[in-house]
Specification:
With 387 residues, the protein is an alpha+beta fold. It is built from 14 helices and 14 strands. Strands 1, 3, 4, 5, 6, 7, 8, 9, 10, 11, 13 and 14 form a twelve-stranded mixed β-sheet that branches. A two-stranded antiparallel ribbon has the order 2-12. Its main location: membrane. This is FtsX-like permease family protein. It is found in: Cell membrane.
């Protein structure tokens, strides 16, 4: 108890410094709590359980297209109910920084394959499906830019140029779709494949990937293997996976997020160590006289070292638990509202265990040098600090 009272008394001496130090610790462990679930998702295996939609990609790379004639061959397989194809368009509106999620697909198949959206205006849906040069726009995106049915919208593609070399494609808004659920995000554009395929300068009769709806989710893995066997040893072999794994593959293609996250965490905790160690050093220097008096009263060097280490660990655990708790709430909110890959996010006991280990390791590292300095300080020099 005497150590605890000393620790709390010392903490109250520099409240402003303690507040800033605790703030740094909270932020560091908040980032750790947010990043650990993301790293675990990247390391998760492909799980075919209860998957009623499969994604068929080019085995070599997701960025490489597949022949559109694969669709009919996939549709002939057992357990396959419906097959659709999609192509990433790479659209920007008005400026290159204003990126818009845009996919190319068959309008007739889109409402069937994508259950997350719905067209409440049947006439608008029919008009869009009948007009190859029109697009369907999500309600959120239409409201954001003030688009209405009939408006002309120029979209700049970073991937596909028109046959005349122009990267700007002008479409008419043919329909506006809503989300099937209240919290659905509708910020995308859907472009008809036939018009796109005829107008683009390269890649004719190819698609980005296929989406396959299956009858029995319990046979998802077997169906995926059957699809890949179908195109084995062909110029464009396939890799069939689930939607969640597809999202994971997409992120991996965009960049090495695991390395980026790891490097970020290393820099964050290195900065945390520098900040907290500096604060601890200042606190110890101010208390050299106190430590000398304690030595005279019978405290040994190990007792002083224990006090310094306890103060450092108390700071780390106080801020660390708060930061991890905030991260847990944030991750819970995101996973509850997200779909596919992000719905896997969770802050579980493994993350808390890693967090506790980091609190201990950081606390020990931060306390090491101040503890050594305090232990080496002789009583005479320490008493001189009080004069």
């Amino acid at each position: 108890m005497r150590f605890l009272s000393l620790i709390l008394a010392n903490a109250s001496r520099g409240r402003a410094r303690l507040a800033f130090t605790l703030g740094s610790v909270v932020v560091a462990f908040l980032l750790l709590g947010l990043m650990l679930p993301v790293l675990r998702v990247f390391d998760s295996r492909v799980d075919f359980a209860d998957a009623n939609r499969l994604m068929v990609l080019n085995k070599a790379s997701m960025m490489r297209p597949l022949p559109i004639n694969y669709k009919d061959r996939i549709a002939e397989l057992d357990n396959v109910e419906e097959v659709g194809h999609f192509t990433f368009f790479g659209a920007a509106y008005q400026s290159g920084s204003n990126q818009i999620p845009a996919i190319v697909t068959e309008p007739e198949n889109f409402p069937v394959m994508v259950e997350e959206v719905e067209f409440r205006d049947a006439d608008a849906l029919s008009n869009w499906q009948a007009d190859p040069s029109s697009i369907a726009v999500g309600r959120d995106l239409a409201n954001k830019h003030g688009w209405k049915i009939g408006d002309l919208v120029p979209l700049h593609s970073s991937i596909y140029n028109r046959s005349d070399g122009n990267p700007v494609w002008t479409f008419r808004v043919g329909a506006i779709f809503d989300g099937a659920a209240e919290d659905s995000v509708t910020d995308s554009v859907v472009i008809p494949y036939e018009y796109f395929n005829n107008e683009r300068i390269k890649g004719e009769d190819t698609v980005g990937w296929f989406a396959v709806r299956i009858a029995d989710a319990n046979k998802a893995e077997a169906t995926g293997k059957a699809i890949d066997v179908l195109f084995e040893n062909s110029p464009n072999e396939t890799a069939t996976t689930t939607e969640r794994a597809f999202a994971k593959s997409f992120l991996n293609q965009v960049g090495d997020f695991k390395t980026l996250i790891g490097a970020t965490l290393i820099l964050v905790f290195w900065t945390l160590i520098l900040i907290t160690a500096n604060a601890q050093m200042q606190s110890i220097r101010e208390r050299f006289g106190d430590f000398a008096v304690m030595r005279i009263l019978g405290f040994r060097k190990r007792h002083i070292t224990r006090i310094i280490l306890s103060e450092s660990l108390l700071t780390m655990f106080s801020g660390g638990i708060i930061g991890m708790a905030i991260a847990g709430i944030a991750v819970l909110i995101v996973s509850a509202k997200a779909e596919a890959l992000l719905s896997l996010l969770s802050l579980d006991w493994r993350d808390w265990l890693i967090g506790a280990g980091m609190m201990i390791a950081t606390g020990v590292i931060v306390a090491t040098i101040p503890a050594i300095l305090a232990a080496r300080q002789n009583i005479i020099d320490g008493l001189a600090e009080t004069l």
